[in-house]
Amino acid sequence: MELDTQLQVSEEILLKAFNHMMLAKAMADIYEENRQITKYVHSTSRGHEAIQLAAAYQLTKDDWVSPYYRDESLLMGIGFEPYRLMLQLLAKADDPFSGGRSYYSHPSSREEDKPKIIHQSSATGMQAIPTTGVAQGIKYLQEFKLQEFDNNPVVVCSMGDNSVTEGEVSEAFQFAALHQLPVIFLVQDNEWGISATKEEARTSDAYDYAAGFVGLNRMRVDGTDFVDSFTAMKKAVDFVRTERKPMLVCAKTVLIGHHTSGVRREFYRDEADLEKHRAKDPGNLLRARLLDDGIDEDLLKQIEKKARLEAEQAFQKAIAAEGPKPETVEEFVFAPTPITEETGTRVPAEATEKIVMVDAAIHAIQEIMWKHPEALLYGQDVGERIGGVFRETVTLGAKFGNKRVFNTAIQEAYIIGSTVGMSAVGLKPIVEVQFADYIYPGINQLITEISKSSYLSRGKFPVSNIIRVPTGAYGGGGPYHSGSVESILANIKGIKIAYPSNAADFKGLLKAAYYDPNPVVMLEHKGLYWSKVPGTEDAKTIEPAEDYILAFGKGNVILEADKTETEKGRTLVIVTYGMGVYWAKEAAKSFEGRVEIIDLRTLIPLDEELVFESVKRHGKCIVLTEEQLQNSFAEAIAHRISRNCFRYLDLPVETMGALNLPAVPINLVLEKEMLPNAEKLAAKIGEMFRS
Question: Which residues of the chain have pLDDT under 50?
Fold first, then answer.
């Protein structure tokens, strides 16, 4: 898409832009002059001011924008004054974005009179997927008439040029183009990626690269020229607002400041390069244009002087502002959940027939989607044709249509990361990763964006999603369809993890996950889906009523030891979850009355109270997992048990899991040798009783 002739931009807008540019210059100069005070790493917008302000001036309160860490001019352009930005620069308590937890120009905002801003990380290019998720969500809201807007919302995702080389950016481009989403990818190209030049880092600029994404419109613009930039951004925003199609704007800019305060320009740039960039300083270019247009030079000098004074006053005020109190450090990890107790009917009086776990999932999601139009389901192969590779969403596509239940490409990062944006606009995405072994491409989004969003936005943007993950080994699934991933997930702070072992728990936990405003991973052992594995018949249960909800953090004693045996010191407790429940139940048959079994049901939060009480009562404990044992979640639990129950233990806390191999072998004999089972567990129990 080519630019027509420049717009006739009003003198009022030109002077407004000049004032903002002078503020940006003054702020950068003040930060540089006070390096002992501005001690936290920061970037400034010097050289990028024109395109950022041009973009900002187009946006309304119904729009969404994701600035990146060099976008302070964009933030000023949408209404954030220097003082509020400086509160974040200096990590003060009243930092409006993160309360002193994140870097400068890392915003998050729900302020009613401004475009909305989701939390985003510093990780290069990672904002592309969550922000495209916002556009995906807006399209859904409008298609189903769930929200009315004064203006058709436009979503702007701002990025640097080298971020386009990230694979996750490609996933965002692909999804936006395929689904024709109302998003603008604003790529600010200053030809540097820290110390890497464009020649070292990429074969083309973003404009040429985007040509391969059919359906993604694109334009180039001189991002140092304010009028050119204003013309381009008005055209881009008007196009997306009207046509509801995606656009990429490649804006050529310059880097006048440092990459960051920690990676200074003199470390990697010579004087010739600096002079080339300074020659295109947007402030100087706009000044020259204003003088050519007849604006009095004294007025411009007065604006510059006033901007410096305003920035200085704001800086001194920010220095004097209070810092965050130490006791607030643990706030906002999770948003409060309304689901704190088990409610509803677990075993309806009239019910007689048991259902498998797969049906529990289908029925729970179906009940949710009938009741809540904001719920939708997507992932690989979950659509109407097969309803998931385990048939765990079969019938849902036919019942709810392909705009509420749909297939995605093989894009685990997009599947997971897009839930950030979907949640931000008020939707509840239920997404699926096909096998646990394939969650790794999405781990970046899960850790970098999702898990930190509530904490770093001070609770403004908890990510409310459900990520379904079939997990576990059985029947020769082999090295890429049998993995267990709970230890990796449990090490991520800011997400919740459920691991049901039967149909009733599954349905109740899935309902709780839906009403929880936080990110939830549902680990679903595929060997329990249909109860096809010998000994797992009890995974089938009577189906709970529609109103049944099982709160997270509530473990379950599924087998009690005989009190008389316990009083004699002849019992132990097995703490487990998932398939481990069935190994434990089978092994316990050899030790009648002497084994108690706790099914954790959720790993985060963990019912430590139940576990510790039981261990103190029995004095002996095995923590059983299907995972490879070394450095596992099970070993971490065992340590916590040992620390909290030390005075009550008769023996060291034991752990049992799979052999420490890098993958599950496909051969059934080797698979069996690697994994725990009831026979191996019974031998371990016998050893402990003989000790």
Answer: none
